[in-house]
## 1
Amino acid sequence: MLETVHHLILHVVFILFMVLLFQMFTNDSDNGSKGFTLKFLIMNLAVLVFTMMFPVVYSSGYVYDFKVIPMILAFIYGGKRVGFSTFLTMLVIGVFTSHVWIFLVVNYAIYSVLLVPISKWYKRGTWRYKIVLISVFYLFIPITRTCFLLQRNEIEQLLLMVSSTLIIWITLILTIYLIENRLEQLRVKKELMKAEKFNVVSQLAASVAHEIRNPMTTVRGFMQLLQRETLTEEQKSFINISIQELDHAQDVINQYLSLAKPQTEEYEVFSLTDTINESVDVMSTYAVMSSIQINSHIENDLMVQGIKIELKQVLLNLLKNAIEAIKENGEITVAAHVHKDGRIMVVIQDNGAGMPPDQLKVLGRPYYSTKEKGTGLGLTVCYQIIKRMKGEIQVESEQGVGTTFRIFL
Ligand code: ADP
Ligand code: MG
């Protein structure tokens, strides 16, 4: 018994060592690529060959090994092709070793077929889900074995089987943990590189945007002068459209610039109550144009720390979005009060079009907009400003019912 356990532990060490090598040899360019699959295949086959060549043999002739681990890994990380090639390799090795071949074929053919849909579910799941899924699948094997042993009345084998099952199961979870960890590392590194690139580009673009703004103001001024000339109606409408388009471009640039603004401005304590009231006043004309009513319930003397203009920009953006979501005839509720947890909560609620869940997930991503003339930067700016103020934005939305934005400060 003790010897068998020693033997099992040797296998565990070998498998973990192979995973370690795999971790060492995968690099940044490998995430999801061919190189990754190849390295993974080599590691997996090495484990398979080792565990089948030197199986743990029970006193009464039962052969036990870890081949289920490379099989499961092959399917969940390599896909169907890697999975079935591992299966075939196993059959070939099975011919040359002391396995009961027909058992091997039948048992593992069933596992392979089951593993195809499982690997599909596996990819979608969270951490805990993955571990539970694989554990349930794995435990299916010892349970079939237990039935087999019980039927044959070999109770003393059971103890050995339970302990080996435990060891194999722990090894399996450990291997999965190590591989997932590595994949996560690769993913984060990739994201980081992307973010760095974005950072440089946005800094450059900010300076360009700044340079463009000045000539545009000049052009706009001269166009307004031109409008006063005696022109035909058609010509006037052309100039009108040009000015509108210029304004739109200006909007985009302004929002963009505030996105890339350095964070060195002074923080001050100011009245949130006043800021909200001012923002609502500014937007109310825009709202009246679409026959929208803005109701506000704002507690007196709310004070916050931050940059007043920035917070105003957040409120204006959110109000503008709410008005645009309603289009015509609706109601917007703006409320602000001290929340139960001590923070100040500002609520902006509309009964407009709302958003489906998958849209909620991508909210705040730069240039994401569903509007023809949208910039897709409004919410990006809002999220950034609130984050800088160490606050939080929560969104709740239902399609056809409306949207609620909550800001916690
Ligand atoms: P823009 O307003 O220029 O499109 P935003 O970043 O402000 O860019 O908003 C991004 C998108 O989020 C909008 O195009 C819209 O689809 C959605 N959205 C934002 N606020 C609301 C809201 N209150 N109701 C419904 N959809 C909204
Ligand atoms: Mg907007």
## 2
Amino acid sequence: ALITLRQLLDDAAEHGYGVPAFNINDMEQGLAILRAAEACDAPVILQASRGARAYAGDIMLRKMVEALAEMFPGNHIVLHQDHGNNDATCLSAIRHGFTSVMMDGSLKEDMKTPASYDYNVEITGRVTKAAHAVGASVEGELGVLGSLETGEAGEEDGSGAEGKLSHDQLLTDPDQAVDFVMATKCDALAIACGTSHGAYKFSRQPDGDILSMATIAAIHEKLPNTHLVMHGSSSVPQYLQDLINSHGGEMPQTWGVPVEEIVRGIRMGVRKVNIDTDCRMAMTGAFRKVAAEHPKEFDPRKFMVPAMAELEKLCRERFEQFGTAGRS
Ligand code: G3H
Ligand code: 13P
Ligand code: NA
Ligand code: ZN
């Protein structure tokens, strides 16, 4: 059944687990994620970006998630808007059956220009009021995602700040976080701690200089009852880089967020863990393997079935690692 983010994260906090929020764009991703959730008896957050809504269409997305809820009656599902850029995006998502929205006011509507603190408080507070009036949850974001190594947002094609960012912008200020949550009444708070979107997060195995778990600890100390959200949480596992690159891919060597660090974060109040890149890599790795090994193949299902299996395996691992397994 569909539930709200608030309902799910309250349970996660009570029992000390984290919930992966997997991005969804199509039926194959939905089936793979829910098969994993069913196998692990886990609740799950399905999140759709503005790009996903444009790709599949709101009606298709809604009916698809309704179908998944019907096919997997034992699993609680949250349907969440990822990185809403203004009121209209968030409110139209709710009208289309989303039970939760992210109002990302860390950036202006263009999702490229860092916004002022006052703008962020104002728009996030306004969306929260409207969402709560109809029973939906809201995730806000304070701090700008980006690399502490380069000062850049990372992802070139998606959302992400343009230009160089300072350490002050890249690490959420704990005192400001307290003020922000009080002022906006958001249900969950996305923080910046040195992670960024996409595959190219770190140029080496991250340490405390470039992945600031200390920031999460400091925020949790001041806001022990706030559900924290970690964006850019793909681990970019070596086995998936190898799967892609040994079948014709040319991804440069890169490092993501180690699963152990995410697990440490979960012990420090992280409840929602956003993962898109790993899912993309799992499916793409499987596609490439089929294409390389069976060049005569042209039935898309012969590509989709192994891709779904690879994604299901990844999701199962995350449910087990984050303690979500057994909690649906
Ligand atoms: O925020 C980034 C997510 O990975 C969604 O990406 O906007 O390309 O769907 P997208
Ligand atoms: P990744 O690119 O690390 O998977 O992050 C996804 C994300 O934060 C979506 O909001
Ligand atoms: Na989100
Ligand atoms: Zn994100």
